[in-house]
Write a structure and sequence with these properties.
single chain; alpha/beta; five-stranded parallel beta sheet; elongated
Length: about 325
């Protein structure tokens, strides 16, 4: 075939046709979220073991993704290749588990050869197929219909719209279970400690802050020039103003310095309390780093003081700390 003869507009037309076909296949599932879907959710919620997902070929790839989505959203799950299951891996499945089997035709040999053993062990089975009258659908405890009018492939051969529909139905199950379990964002982060969300939701201010000993701080009466020296020593772009009990009275930042210079303030004669920001917002060390980020973004500031319950200085945190930790 001479690929040079294919026009750009033809490629765009083909790509759009695929998206439209798959979108229609997913949209058609809306009316199939019915009593059968509820039964499937109940079976999965009642599972005392783990959810085991099986599927062959492209359905297997979708099943593997479904197992991963379930596992990361509060439903312990794993994928078993049906071919391997027939040669020993079926031993991974216990009587406390629940099975989800995916097959567009519902007649996949590697999947259906497992049905007698699944039935014998009385393991609940959720089937996701495009054929309600298939062997797999009839053997299942509950069947979820993901039939599509046609594949996006112009030959009608490559699984495209059918796998997209199965993927969407799997996501619908996973999210319904997530909500039913009261799964929270923090729960999600606990299973994603290496991801950005995990860092945002698990890191606390005390994990990132500069301790009090490394936080610039001066007392009232300190001259502005000496306060600037203190700021320079630590390189945090600010200094805290505290009393002799370490209670926070104010903060002086690079921004405050610019505003003071605009007003022609005498650096050598002005006491720090004359130019500081009094009673500044502060955070506590046990708070999440994401909370500090939200406060900085809301107030358009780059640094925060960290205090205890009595407003005593215990440290400081700036935007660079959050950037280094990947919270931003």
């Amino acid at each position: 075939m001479n690929t040079e003869s294919v026009k750009d507009e033809d490629l765009i037309k083909l790509g759009r046709a695929v998206i439209e076909t798959e979108a229609a296949a997913v949209a058609a599932l809306t009316n199939r979220i019915d009593d059968q879907f509820v039964v499937a959710c109940r079976l999965l919620l009642q599972c005392e073991g783990r959810v085991v997902v099986i599927g062959m070929g492209k359905s297997g790839h979708i099943g593997s993704k479904l197992a991963a989505t379930l596992a990361s959203t509060g439903t312990p799950a794993f994928f078993v290749h049906p071919g391997e299951a027939g040669h020993g891996d079926l031993g991974m499945i216990t009587a406390d588990d629940t099975l989800i089997a995916l097959s567009n035709s519902g007649e996949t040999d590697e999947v259906n050869q497992l049905l007698p053993l699944i039935k014998r062990r009385q393991i609940p089975l959720v089937a996701i197929t495009g054929n309600p009258s298939s062997t797999l659908a009839r053997a299942a405890s509950v069947h979820l219909d993901v039939a599509v009018d046609r594949e996006a492939c112009p030959l009608g051969l490559a699984p495209t719209a059918s796998t997209t529909a199965s993927l969407a139905m799997g996501d619908a199950l996973a999210i319904a279970l997530l909500e039913a379990r009261g799964f929270t964002a923090e729960d999600f982060a606990l299973s994603h400690p290496g991801g950005r969300l995990g860092r945002r939701l698990l890191l606390r201010i005390e994990d990132l802050m500069h301790p009090s000993a490394d936080t610039p701080q001066v007392y009232p009466g300190t001259g502005l020039a000496d306060a600037l020296v203190e700021m320079t020593r630590y390189g945090l772009g600010m200094t805290a103003i505290v009393d002799h009990d370490q209670r926070i009275l104010g903060i002086f930042t690079d921004g405050d310095l610019r505003r003071a210079l605009d007003k022609n303030v005498d650096v050598h004669q002005t006491p720090i309390e004359a130019v500081m920001t009094p009673n500044p917002r502060h955070v506590e060390r046990q708070q999440l780093a994401a909370e500090a980020l939200a406060m900085m973004e809301e107030k358009r500031i780059n640094a925060l003081l960290v205090a205890d319950a009595d407003s005593r200085l215990v440290g400081a945190l700036n935007m660079h700390d959050l950037l280094r930790a990947g919270v931003v």
